[in-house]
Design a protein that fits this description.
The structure holds 2 protein chains of 2 kinds. Chain A is α/β, with parallel strands linked by helices. Chain A has one domain (about 5-195): Rossmann fold, CATH 3.40.50.300. Helix content of chain A is about 30%, strand content about 30%. Chain A is built from 5 helices and 8 strands; from the N terminus they run ββαβββαβαβαβα. In chain A, strands 1, 2, 3, 4, 5, 6, 7 and 8 form an 8-stranded mixed sheet that branches. The N and C termini of chain A lie close together (about 10 Å). In chain A, about 50% of the residues are buried. The longest helix of chain B has 25 residues, at about 310-335. In chain B, strand 8, helix 21 (about 480-495) and strand 9 form a beta-alpha-beta unit. By secondary structure, chain B is of the alpha/beta class. In chain B, strands 2-3-4-1-5 form a 5-stranded parallel sheet, sandwiched between helices. Helix content of chain B is about 50%, strand content about 5%. Chain B has helices spanning about 20-30, 50-65, 75-90, 90-100, 115-135, 155-160, 170-185, 195-200, 205-220, 230-235, 260-275, 275-290, 295-300, 310-335, 335-340, 350-365, 385-400, 415-430, 440-455, 455-465, 480-495, 520-525, 535-550, 555-565, 570-590, 595-600, and strands spanning about 40-45, 70-75, 105-110, 135-140, 165, 405-410, 435-440, 470-475, 500-505, 530. Chain B is built from 26 helices and 10 strands. Classes of the chains: A alpha/beta, B alpha/beta. The interface of A and B includes residues 33, 35, 58 and 67 of A.
Amino acid sequence: MSLVNFTTREITCKIVYYGPGRSGKTTNLQYVYDQVPTERRGRMVSLATQSDRTLFFDFLPLELGTISGFTTRFQLYTVPGQVYYNATRKLVLQGADGVVFVADSQARQLDENLASLRNLQANLLEQRVDVRALPLVIQYNKQGLPPELVLPVEELDDAMNFRGVPSFPADALAGNGVFETLRSVSELVLRRLSEEPQK
Amino acid sequence: MTVDLNPRFTFDTFVVGPSNRLAVTACRTVSDHPGATYNPLLIYGQTGLGKTHLLMAIGQRARELSPDMTVEYMTLDEFVESYHAAVSAGRPEDFRNRFAQASIVLVDDVQFLTHSKEMQAELIRMAGAFQEAERQLVLTSDRPPGDIEGLDRRLLDQMDGGLVVDIGLPEYETRLAILRQRAAESNAAFAPDVLAAIADLDVQHVRALLGIFNRLQAFQSVHDNPLTPQQARALVLGEAPTVEPEAQPGEGADADSGEFDLFLSGLQASVTRQVEGWKTEIQNAISEWSGRGYDTSSLEALLEQDGPAATDAAVRAFEEQVERLRGLEAEVTVFDPEVARNPAFKSPDRIEEVEALVRGARAKFVPPPGPSDAFALESFLLGDATKMALEAARAVIAQPGTLYNPLTFVGPSGVGKTHLLHALGRALQAEAGGSVACLAAETFVEELVSAIEQDALSAWRARYRHASAFLLDDVHQIGAKLHSQEELFHLFNLFADAKRQMVFTANVSPQDLEGLDDRLKSRFVGGLVANIGPPDDALRRTIVRSRLQGRVGSDDNEIVNYLADRGTDSVRSLLGVVQRAMNGAEAMGEQLNLETARKLLEEPGRAEARTSPPGRASGVIVTSLSALKSAEKIVWDWPNTTERVIEELS
C-alpha cells in the first residue's frame, strides 16, 4: 500500500487515526481538512451515525503536490472507536504506514484509552505487523478542558506511552497539536519508508 | 544555502503601524541605499511580527532597483551550516568569498549566536568588511542584542554603530489593517465588524492573527450565511461547530494557510532527509570533494539514477579512490611536485593514468648526494683545535634538528671541516635514517644551473626538500650567487621549521662571508658556529703517528717530530708531507726514516715539501666523487699522473 516509488517519483502514505470512541479522531481530520487549500484536498468522506459518531470510517485524501520531486499523496483515515466495530478497525488498519493514537485526556476515560491501545496492538499482531517497527505517535487530546477533568501529559505518558513514542498534547477542536501530531507521524513514516528496500 | 526571497514578502504587503513604522522606514532606507546609512541594521521583536517579511522586503526592493544586485538571504542556521561546510571541506575562504560577492546579506534569527564564538567572530569580521566596502548587512533577532547571552562585546559595538530597531506588538488599528489586507488579497468578504471583532481580540502576533483569519475564511466558505462578529469570536475561542466534512472542493481554506504551509515545508524537509537521504549523501560527498578540487562527475552521474541502489558502496568506492589519489600525490610530491600538479590527480576516473605518472616520476628520481663513506667520526682526531667542533657534532647526532641548528664549522682550509661534515652526515643517516643530503656548495650551484637549463627546478628542489638532513660544504662558495642563495634560504626555512638538521662548513665566520645575503647570515649565526683551528703540536704528532702506523715504527719520535714540524698550518698540508715522504721512500726502495725523509723533502731535485699548499693543492684526493668535486681537494701537480693517489683522510 505505502510506497516510495523512485521510478514514478511518487510517495503514497496511509495514516490511521486510532483511539477510543469520542476521543477526537474525526475532529483531527476535520481540522486538517479545514487548513488544507482547496486544490490539495479530496472530498472528505465521513460515514457518521445519526448521533454524529463515526460509523464506518473517515477518509481524507490529501494531494500534497510535488515535494522534492515526488508526487506526494497522504491518505488519512479514522477508525470507529466504539468497541463493537472491531472488524472495521481491522479493515482500516490494513496497510497502514503509520498510526496516530488519539487518546482522550479525561481522567475518567483512561481505561477506555488503555483498552483501545490494547486493541490496536492485538489487531496489528493479528495482521502480523511488527508493533515496534510501525510508526506510532500518541496524541493526548482534549487538553483544553478544565484541568480538573484531564490528566497531565506526564501521567498519561506514564500510563500509556510505555514504548516512548512521540506524544503530543492537543486540543483538536481548536487545532492545537493537530499538525504537530501529523508532522511527527509523517516524519516517522517517511523515515521508515526510506529504510525499506525499494518497492 | 541561500533561500529564494518569498515574492509575497514586499514592502507593499507589509502593513505599517505605529509599532513598526520606524523599522519599516529603516528597512526602506537600507534597501534604497545599501551600505550607505544604517550598517549593520538589526531588527528585533517577538516572533510572528514580520521580521522575516521585512528582511525579504529589503532584498526584493533592492533587486527591483538594481536587478544585478546580489542579495543573500539565510537563517543563522544556514549561515552556520554554510560556514561549517566550507571549513570541513578545508576551504574556509570559500565561505568568505561567497559573501564577498554579495551586495546585501540578510541573516535571520541571529539570537541563536549564543556562545557561538566562532560564528560571532566570523560575523564581526564580515560586519567590519561590509562597513568598509559599503555593502549592507541586515540581521534579525527575537530579542535585543544585549539580551543575547554570550554575545561578543565587539559585535554589540558594531551593532550600536549601525542601527538597532524593534518591531512592537501590533495595536488594534494595525491588526485590523492586516486582516483587511489579507481579506482583500484572498478575495474574502466578511460581514461588517467581523474583522474588527477579531482585531479586538488579544492576539499577540501577526502569524496567529493570520491563522485566525484562515479559520474564519474556511468556516465561512462552508456555510451559507456569513459569519457574525459573535460567531467569529466564538469560533476563535473554540466554541464554534466544526467544519462540515462534506464540504465541496472550491469552498475550502485559503491556499496560504499558515499551518498547512508549515506542515508542507516540514514534510519537504522530511522527504529530502529521509526519502532522498541517499541523494543528500551523494550531494554531501560531491560538496566535500568538489570543494577540495576533485572531479566528482562520477558521483554526479549517480544522482541521475532512479533509486538509491548501491549508493553507499558507490560513495565509499569514490572515497577510496580519492584516498589512493591523495597517497599517490603525496608520494610523487617527493619526487617531483610539478607532476603532482597534473589535473589527473584530482580525478578518480583517471587513477591508472596517475599511477603511470607516479611510476615515471619515481623512475626519474635521483636521490640527493649523500655523505661519503670515506669519513668516519672515529678517525677525526681530537685536539684542542678540534674539540669544540667535535663536541658540537656529537651533540647534533644526539639531538638532530633541535639543539644546534644550523651547525657551522668554520676554519681555514685543510683543517678537517669536510671530514667532520661527512662523518656527521653518516652518523645522522645511521641514527635518524632517511635521506641525508651532503654535498659541496659548488655541486649545489652546478646542479641548480643544470636544473634551470633542463626546466626541472621543482624536481631538483624536491630532492633536497625531502631530505632528513642537509649538509653543505664550503658554503662560502655560493657568495655572490644570488639564485643559489635564494634556494638555500628557502631550504633553510623549510628545514628549520621541520626541525631537520642543517650543517655547513665555511672558511670564515658567516658574518664575514663576502657576497652572502644578510638574511642568510643571520640564520647561520642563529645556530652554532664551531671553529676548527690549525692543529697544535700535540695534534700534529698524533696525526703523523697515526699515518705512519704500520709503515714505520710509530714510536720513532725523530721521524714523527720531523714530519710534524714540516706541515704546521693545516691537517691537509701535514698529511701531504707525510704522504710524499712515504711515497718517496717507497719509490727509492728505502725504509722511511729521518735521513730518507730529509733527502726527500729537503734536497734539491726531490719533491719539495711545502709548508702550505699553493692555491688549492694538497696531498689528498678524497674518494667521494659526487660529494667532493671541489678542486681544492684535488692535486694535479704530482710528478706523473700514475702517482695520483686516492686516499682516505684517516
